[in-house]
């Protein structure tokens, strides 16, 4: 038997809207990563972009359990000596709530060229409004 590999014009990419209000961060991020990667489709191929576009709204209302709001730390390095910058989840939720979901999803995607391409298909918004109405996105209900 031969392995079926879809042609690029056979791959159908849809748009989905996910409401993050009250959803647990990790469960939400793993479901979004699966959709972005295309693992929910019968013609999934690891080296191709077979996934869909995902729009996440209400990112500022995503839920975390335990003491993660105070204890979870996001680190980045500026490139200069002594340039380690750290911010906890509580502060990041006040300033840039979109980065919480983007960071969680990025950790679940492959860290290579394909993963960077897939991450560009994720659009996260803090509020309930988004500018992607022209794409006619379907509402996706995630039980997380």
Please give a structural write-up:
- It is built from five helices and six strands.
- It is α/β, with parallel strands linked by helices and 144 residues long.
- Helix 1 links the parallel strand 1 (15-19) and strand 2 (53-57).
- Helix 1 crosses helix 4 (98-106).
- The relative contact order is 0.24.
Instruction: Specify the number of helices.
Output: 5
- Remind me, CATH topology of the domain at 15-64 and 104-140? Ribosomal Protein L13p, Chain: A
Strand order of the largest sheet: 5-2-1-6
CATH architecture of the domain at 15-64 and 104-140: Alpha-Beta Complex
Strand content: 15-25%
* CATH top level label of the domain at 15-64 and 104-140: Alpha Beta
Superfamily at the CATH H level of the domain at 15-64 and 104-140?
A: Ribosomal protein L13
Residue share in helices?
A: 25-40%
Distance between the termini: 38 Å
Mean pLDDT: 95
* Class from secondary-structure proportions: alpha/beta
Shape: globular
Provide a short characterization of the protein structure.
With 144 residues, the chain is α/β, with parallel strands linked by helices. Helix content is 28%, strand content 18%.
Which helices and strands occur, and which strands form pairs?
Elements: E1 15-19, H1 25-37, E2 53-57, H2 68-71, E3 73-77, E4 84-88, H3 89-95, H4 98-106, H5 113-119, E5 122-124, E6 138-140
Parallel strand pairs: 1-2, 1-6, 2-5
Antiparallel strand pairs: 3-4
Helix pairs in contact: 1-4
Could you name the key traits of this structure?
144 residues; alpha/beta; Ribosomal Protein L13p, Chain: A; four-stranded parallel β-sheet; two-stranded antiparallel sheet; 28% helix; 18% strand; globular
């Amino acid at each position: 038997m031969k392995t079926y590999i879809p042609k690029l014009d056979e791959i159908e990419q849809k748009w989905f809207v996910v409401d993050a209000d009250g959803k647990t961060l990790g469960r939400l991020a793993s479901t979004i990563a699966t959709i972005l990667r295309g693992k929910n489709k019968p013609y999934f191929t690891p080296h191709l972009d077979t996934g869909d576009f995902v729009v996440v709204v209400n990112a500022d209302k995503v839920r975390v359990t335990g003491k993660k709001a105070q204890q979870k730390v996001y680190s980045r390095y500026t490139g200069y000596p002594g340039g380690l910058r750290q911010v906890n989840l509580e502060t990041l939720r006040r300033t840039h709530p979109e980065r919480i979901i983007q960071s969680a999803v990025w950790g679940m995607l492959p860290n290579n060229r394909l993963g960077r391409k897939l991450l560009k298909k994720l659009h996260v918004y803090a509020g309930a409004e988004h500018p992607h109405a022209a794409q006619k996105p379907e509402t996706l209900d995630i039980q997380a």
